Amino acid sequence: MSVTDQLYATCASGLEQLLAEEIRACGGSNVNVAGSGVRFDGALDVAYRACIWSRVANRILLPIHSGSAASPEALYEVVQEVDWAKHLEVSGTLAVDFYCSHSNITHSQFGALKVKDAVVDQYRDRFGVRPNVNRDQPDVQINVYLYRNKARIAIDLSGSSLHRRGYREQAGPAPIKENLAAALLLASGWPTAMEQACTFVDPMCGSGTIAIEAAMIACHQAPGLHRDYFGFLGWLQHDAAVWQQVKADALAARKPSACLIVGSDNSAHAIKLAQENAVLAKVDDAIEFVRHDVLQGSVLKSLNKQSQTTQQSSHEKGFILSNPPYGERLSADALFYENLGKQLSQNYSGWKVAVITANPALLKHARLPFKPLLDVRNGGMDCQLFEGTIPLVADANAASLETEQIDATDFINRVKKNNKHLKSWVKREGIRAWRAYDADLPDYAVAIDVYECANKHVVVQEYQAPVTVNAILAEARLNAIMAAIPELYNVSAANVHLKVRQKQAGRSQYERRASQGISDVLVEQNCEYELNFTDYLDTGIFLDHRKVRRHIFDSAQNKKFLNLFAYTGAATVAAIAGGAKSSVSVDLSNRYCQWTERNIRRNQHNPVNHSVVKSDVMQWLAENKNLSFDLILLDPPTFSNSTGIDADWNVQREHVSCIKACMALLEKDGLLIFSNNYRRFKLDMAMSAEQGGPYIIEDKNRWSVDTDFQRNARIHQCWFIRHA
Q1: Pairing of strands 198-202, 314-322
Q2: What is the strand order of the sheet 132-133 is part of?
């Protein structure tokens, strides 16, 4: 075998660049990615080093012949063109791997049988005897790849897939292949981290594969060092002296790990398997395995309790790589990932973390700053490797945040300042419900609404913290807020209600939560509104629409009023109280239609001229073109994917057609009030008379935002629209 002989190394799809780097490190030249692998040049020592050192490769192949094989007979002839006596003793054993793609031969087992027949027939014709087949550990493993009717014939120097290191005799459920585990470690930067003496943790280690591969890298141990079988050992052109030198070099390269490597799992059986596998891999001296539940605090604390390690490593610099449950054999839900994110944030602040998953949507619930790094396949599933750094807890030990008292002085002072600023306005305007605080301080990202009902209530809405903020720190700050509010607002702790405001799908912000049934009645402009403080994200009245309701009250005398996307009918009640002679309230939700009806009855209005209709708004507009109104409120959701209708609603996409449908029902001197809460919304001004359109459009955004919302003036947008 000369220096210029070409070799081919195969790997799983997506790992080609990692493999190319390894082959170069083994001495390969002219290394080029080709298909699911790399081509390279090298002598026997390069091939042997690739077999023993590659952590990523599946097989190392030595191509020996190629030719056209458009039929079974042609394949037979091409295989017979090889002088097999140069590769295999007549008394030896063989096996055939056959792969085909875009070829006339489509059955791999048939192709393998044809190749085997060609080889053994050559021996029988020449020597009168034939070699035997051994599918487990043959002297020569023949690899044939048939692509577009061209056969490439190679000797498989690895013999069997190189992911079989020889240490994993048993595995738990959903094991990860050894070479995939190694690839994830290489891709996510473990070799660099270990040089910095970082602590390594796999907190869901199963049978220990990732931790063992991490230890092999940290110990500079060749992954094939203790493997007892390679495909070249029975090959006639094998050079035993070269192999012994390559193996001796690998033995000499091994050194103790400079960092602490820990694997943990909540299964005692999994830990037992992991420990046994580490012994077989001869890295048991480099790994600490401990039974521990990742959702129950720091594994390092459990390690200190359960074992006595002398390993010197800085826990301030750490590296986590894990294969958490996500698939068919192991499953987890959003709550698991939410709790996982909190535990990692609390116990591993500042650490590098990488995870492989087939369900990125679930991973988002961990609320960690993950970014995709690599697309791979694991156990027949399309997966992605994500990586990120757990946000630091500034000036605090993350592990002590459970008992640490967050200093909320800045928040308390800001709330007191706001209360003083709003006090005279609240009294002067007769306001009974207002926004008192709205994420004024970035570290305390909540909105606080005060409701002076028969009983005083305070609603705290937590804006979901960005992933760049440590989740446990954000939780600790929220706890500090909740502890301070009763005294700040002189309210019972039982009447302080916490809600999390985040991006919602469709109408989910209006959907019912776990029912607690805490309700009360708010009085606004002598109108009574039923509120629910616990069962929904919103309470039943939009405080930021206070000025719109007042305008409707002032303008509704003897008017026909239409309320579209009516929600709980607060605007309808204001219109009726203002003297509207009739009203129609339209909403698709049966629950909110009933709520609207209760609000109308509560205010002792005659329901005869005030109808509440359960319907999709666009459908209702299309079916009621004969009606007319003097005053219309159109306040649609940003998005809606209600099961009650076929089409999804998108306010940016649908607003023009919806406005036009409303204007078709509006009297010539009538008014359409159009508002929405989509912050990126852009009104199509082609409808404006200034641009040749049919309507006079008046921007009322600034007018519609009352004093308590001026710190966050983008809370909604509002326009008055009239016929030109």
Answers
A1: parallel
A2: 29-33, 37-41, 6-10, 59-68, 150-156, 140-147, 93-101, 132-133
In the numeric block, the tokens 């200034």 are attached to 690
Residues contacting residue 98 through CB under 8 Å, at least 6 positions apart: 108, 109, 111, 112, 115, 144, 146
Q: Is residue 521 part of a domain?
A: no
d(CA 30, CA 17): 14
Would you say how long the chain is, in residues?
A: 724
Question: Six-digit token pair at 236?
Answer: 């006639």
Mean pLDDT of 41-47: 95
Q: Note whether 330 and 366 are same-domain residues.
A: yes
Per residue in 119-166, pLDDT tens?
999 999 999 999 999 999 999 999 999 999 999 999 999 999 999 998
The contacts of residue 319 (CB under 8 Å, 6+ apart) are 189, 190, 193, 194, 198, 199, 200, 201, 351, 352, 353
Give the end of a domain, one of 346, 364, 399. Answer: 399
The whole-chain average pLDDT of the chain stands at: 90
Longest alpha-carbon distance in the chain: 112
Q: What is the pLDDT of residues 246-302, one digit of tens each?
A: 999 999 999 999 999 999 999 999 999 999 999 999 999 999 999 999 999 888 887
Q: How far is CA 651 from CA 179, 495, 561, in A?
A: 49, 35, 22
The answer to whether residues 70 and 149 touch, using CB atoms and an 8 Å cutoff, is: yes
178 to each of 57, 163, 207, 530, how far by Cα in Å? 10, 5, 11, 61
Same domain for 182 and 150, yes or no, is no
pTM score, two decimals? Answer: 0.73
Q: Using CA atoms in the order 156, 162, 165, 170, what is the torsion angle rounded to 10 degrees?
A: -100
CATH number (domain holding residue 149): 3.30.2130.30
**Does a structural domain hold residue 97?**
yes
Residue 394 has pLDDT above 80, yes or no: no
| SS3 state at 199 | strand
Which CATH number goes with the domain that contains 336? Answer: 3.40.50.150
Which domain range does residue 262 map to?
178-220+255-399
Do 344 and 298 lie in one domain? The reply is yes
Confidence of residue 305 (pLDDT cuts 50, 70, 90): low
Q: What is the C-alpha separation between 22 and 179, in angstroms, rounded?
A: 12
Is 82 found in the same domain as 210?
no
